[in-house]
Amino acid sequence: MPTLEAPPAPPAPAAAAPPRRRRRPLTPYVLLVPAVLVLLAGMGYPLYWQIITSLQEFGLAQQFGQPPTFVGLDNYARIFSDERLWAVVARSIIFCLVNAFLTVGIGVLLALLMKAVHPVVRVVLQVALLLAWAMPMVAAVTVWKWLFDWRTGVINWLLVQVGFDQYSGHAWLAQPLSFFFVATVIIVWMSVPFVALSVYAALTQVSDEVLEAARIDGAGPARILWHITLPLIRPVLSIVLLLQIIWDLRVFAQIRLLQDSGAPVGETNLLGNFIFELGIGRQDFAGAAAVSIFVLALTVLLSWPYVRNLLKEDA
Amino acid sequence: MSATTSSAGPAGPVAAQPARAGTPVPPARPGARRPAAGGRTARRVRRALLGLLAVVIAVVWAFPVYWMVLSSLLPSTRLRASTPSFLPTGATLANYRSVLDGSGFTGALQMSLAITLLTVLAVLVFAFFGALAISRFRFRGRLTFVIAVLFVQMLPAEGLFIAQYKMLSSVNLLNSVVGVSILYTAAVVPFTIWMLRGFVAGVPIELEEAAMVDGLSRTRAFIRITFPLLAPGLVASGVYAFLQAWNEFTVALVALPAESARTLPLWLRSFLAASANRGVDWGEVMAASTLIAVPVIVFFLLVQGRMTSGLVSGAVKG
User: A251, A295, B1, B258: which has the fewest C-beta neighbours closer than 10 Å?
Assistant: First the structure.
């Protein structure tokens, strides 16, 4: 991301003229105590436990009271030589990238559409997007299951009406590929509103004079879009894409809920589902901890550009 | 500097950028611009077509929500018919009645309300103090804390929930309101600290100092001057915490395994599963979904603007 010559923000008031509160250096620490305590309890300790457990033998014997033994990186070696894990990792990454790019692509197109249409139409579209965004995830997946229901679902009915007779009684969730198609439809439907509205907000900041100048100079709409508009909103595009990648890598609940309808679990698990099955299902806590650490490390790595970007704001 | 949430401001840096866009704009091609009148008609037609497309997309996008509400109002005989009904003729509330009378909903509602309330209260107090600390004070360890907060908010529940499950089970807090509320508070506090930080920083300290010059104590000045100005930020943070706790499924799945401790999302899932045993009654399932979704949609529409711009404001500022 290009670092612009940042308009020298008025120097942080505290830096220039230290407020008088500075005399009591204990106050900020006291204020932070509750937040730090709850973060330690809810995140810190589990993280610590996870790191320790991933380095220990922690099977059924330990469940029954035997002290765990330190085994170094054995769990990682065991888990990462398991080809089922690599199948899940590959599946998760492909699923994540397909969903993230589809979401951002459709979101940008809808944002451009919002910019082009009459304000009344724009509000109609925005309200529709907000409705989809506001739907609680579990309710949304439930509705989509009803839409894709093999017997009386409206999507099969519609497909038959337009001539695809083979979709009469088609069970979408029974095959891995069409299972992931349904999951993608749901996730894109839920995620596009955020992208579309954020990108639209960025588009409204592009000054009309610049576009007008390009138009007067004879640039067509496609050229203006590609050479002026998109470069101008690139910072927003990259942040939104990054967030989608991070969010789509952790898809768990939607898959879990769709699997309830009798999908082949082994072939539809993503990383989160794999961890769940390993830990809660098979009580292999050491293995689950090792995979979790891998997922956390990947998230931190991916989040770094986003965090750096937010830090710019922290005056 | 402006509050995190304001979308004003970015106009400057963004508009100042065109020089960087590079490619020199080509000289006007002769005949590139159509005669004014014809051009205007063409543009009008194009705009109308785009408007039509936008309306179609809006209908498609809103359709699942409409379908949920519509199905919840129709008797199951209509839903099982070979041709679907697209309009709510002959609507009935029978599905809602049987959901509300059936087992589980009231218990799940109480559980969800208890967890959500506790989480919202804890988040508001903890995040407010945290935001005060990082926006009104410079102290050793501040930057470390800020960076930690920003990373923690990105951590996926799926990377920690097995450990959280083990932790809660070792202190006998599985299936308890307190246990899951601690996890929710920890998950929501980082983002709310960051969001409130913008609001606190947006209130100039000079306002408080002026009040102190006028004879108020520092505490009273804070309560009388700054606190009311923070109200919108606190409301936004509270609603954000509400939405997270009310909708959460993943952590609840591991932390509340007992049937008696289900929150509404877990209850909806098992309601569908139970219904599936008798060949799903979609009318009832959609009534159940609507009951969960409506309060969320209402709250969401109240605050979404702030949340959107909060997430990407760093980017907008370039």
Answer: B258
Task: Determine the distance in angstroms separating the CA of A266 from the nearest CA of chain B, rounded to an integer.
Answer: 18
B102-160 confidence digits (pLDDT tens): 878 999 999 999 999 999 999 999 999 999 999 988 999 999 999 999 999 899 999 99
Q: Does A139 touch chain B (CB under 8 A)?
A: yes
Q: What is the per-residue pLDDT across A180-198, written as a single tens digit (0 to 9) for each?
A: 999 999 999 999 999 999 9
What residues of chain A, 10 to 49, have a C-beta less than 8 Å from chain B? 10, 12-15, 18-19, 21-22, 25, 27-29, 31-36, 38-39, 41-43, 45-47, 49
The single residue listed with the structure tokens 């410079």 is: B138
Which of A27, A43, A309 would you mutate first to test chain B, the one with the most B CBs within 10 A? A43
Give the pLDDT mean for A2-21.
42
What is the predicted ipTM?
0.86
β-pair partners for B226: none
